[in-house]
Amino acid sequence: MEIRKWKLFWKLHWIKILLGIGITALAISLVIFIIIGIRAWNEAESYLRQSQLAMIPLQLYLQIIMALIFGVVYTFMWYWLMFKRGAQSFTQTKKKSVAGEELGITWSDVIGMEEAKQEALEVVKLIKDRAELQRIGGKILKGILMLGPPGCGKTYLAKAIATEAKMPFISMSGSEFVEMFVGVGAGRIRSLFKQARQHAEFEGGCIIFIDEIDAVGAQRSVDRGFGGQTESNTTLNQLLVEMDGLKEKELNIILIGATNAPETFLDPALLRPGRFDRKIYVDLPGLEDRESLLAYYLRKVTFDQNDVKINRLAKITIGYSPADIANLVREAALIAVRHRKQSITMSEIEEARERIALGIKRKIKMNDEEKRQTAYHEAGHAVVTYLLAPSKDVFKASIIPRKATGGATWIPEKEETFIKDQKELLSEIKIALGSFAAERIKFGFTTAGVDGDFQVALGIAHNMAWRWGMGKSGLIGNFGSLVNQRQFANPLMSEETKAKLDNDVQNILNSCLQEASELLRKESALLDRFAEELFKKEELNYDEIEAIFREFGKSRT
Ligand code: ZN
């Protein structure tokens, strides 16, 4: 034990020990030289003494000039290193580590990611039972990779693992390793792992968390001559070396990397066995997860329990990350305060959603003509959605101008879908073109307000024909992938094929427009009713919309 302590002391303080020895040696030699000098002086001739004395002013003068030059250079370098480099020495990382218990994120705080949580739970077990695992010769965990879209709580989960495993936690971002100069990133990696090893020796283990690991771990590539590529390659190589080093030592160090980028973006070397061999997918929350997230955040504020239906709200927040949900509730609370309300109701939450998605309401007044046009535009979307797309809810319609739009219709999916089929794609095009159809039927002319809708419709139709083999011409193949190679004259594709595909796109758009127009013409009374109601009230909520469709016998419920 004693020897180990001394070893550790040497590891931590070797610079100081060496410096001490060096300075002492210098001082002793200086004293010896002075003594020899005085003796020589006393024995020298008087002529020699005088000539030596005459030289002293010149020597002093030269020394002062040298000292000044060195002083200026040294100060400049010191300033540059200390301040321009953010008060840290160039290749060192002085990251504050936090003790696991101080992070204070327990399992009960981890909500809205049940699947990832189960995986993480297992990881903690493996970290804790390390000794047992070693005894029976099982594989020891070294690297964990967290994958998933931003805002889903990867950092949070990593902290929870540290808290539960009761280990110190060092966190860094991959971008902190990215530097212009060769070797700097690698130096920082070395320094980071060194720090972790010290923690592990003192405290029995350490967790390193590197966010945005793709900044370091992107696929290595050939240097194009600017040196930047070499630098990122050496950084990644150093990371690999350190990770392999973890295997040999008996120290309990776990590296957790997180990335928003797809797995294929990372260098394959990182994913090889013995490196990041455990993956946790932290995905967007599903319906139940969203419900628990909403309940969690709403519990922190006052909300109207009769008005705000958490299960309904969970349904219409498809695609929201935990961060988005937290943001939604926060924004709703701010709006409630501004309206001097005692508690948050559904109308505040809806306003918050619109503000986040579309920007704040504008004070500009549309004239009646513009307002009516917008009302018909939105009514076109709403009616087509309600009648042709049973998988979508028509949740809200509004003709209050916002940052980029004159109006908006909110049509969330009722359930998550992962891959859309042809029918769903076509109904999405019909919904987008519903506005154009409604404007044309009512007024005989259309507006520039269809700009965004056309972009959506064209995008889907293009992909259907060019990428997914859904065009009338029967051409099969992902032609989009050929064009992506940015070649002006693409030898892999004939002009004939291109013309056929473009023809397919227009075919899809035209038949969708025709179907939407026929529907709206047939239901023109419903369209008029919806548009006039929207014109009058400017905003229609879920229940008001349901009521209108019920009047015409179209209710879904
Ligand atoms: Zn529109």
Question: What descriptors fit this protein?
Answer:
557 residues, 6% strand, five-stranded parallel sheet, Rossmann fold, 4 domains, alpha/beta, 8 strands, binds zinc ion, Helicase, Ruva Protein, domain 3
SSE order and pairing:
Layout (H helix, E strand, L loop, with lengths): L1 H42 L2 H39 L15 H4 L10 H15 L1 H7 L6 E5 L6 H12 L3 E5 L10 H20 L2 E6 L2 H4 L10 H21 L4 E7 L18 E4 L5 H13 L10 H7 L5 H17 L7 H13 L9 H21 L7 E3 L9 E3 L11 H22 L7 H16 L12 H5 L11 H28 L1 H14 L1 E2 L1 H10 L6
Parallel strand pairs: 1-4, 1-5, 2-3, 3-4
Antiparallel strand pairs: 6-7, 6-8
Helix pairs in contact: 4-6, 7-9, 10-11, 10-12, 12-13, 14-15, 14-19, 15-16, 15-18, 16-18, 18-19
The structure holds zinc ion (ZN).
Task: Walk me through the structure.
With 557 residues, the chain is an alpha/beta fold. The protein has 4 domains: 2-85; 100-281, P-loop containing nucleotide triphosphate hydrolases (Rossmann fold); 287-358, Helicase, Ruva Protein, domain 3 (Orthogonal Bundle); 368-551, Up-down Bundle (Methane Monooxygenase Hydroxylase, Chain G, domain 1). It is 59% helix and 6% strand. The protein contains 20 helices and 8 strands. The strands form 2 sheets. The protein has a 5-stranded parallel beta sheet, with helices on both faces. Strands 7-6-8 form a 3-stranded antiparallel beta sheet. Helix 4 packs parallel to helix 6 (154-165) and helix 15 (422-443) crosses helix 18. The longest helix is centred in the N-terminal third of the chain and has 42 residues, at 2-43. The radius of gyration is 35 Å and the shape is elongated. The chain starts with a helix and ends in a 6-residue tail after the last helix. The relative contact order is 0.06.
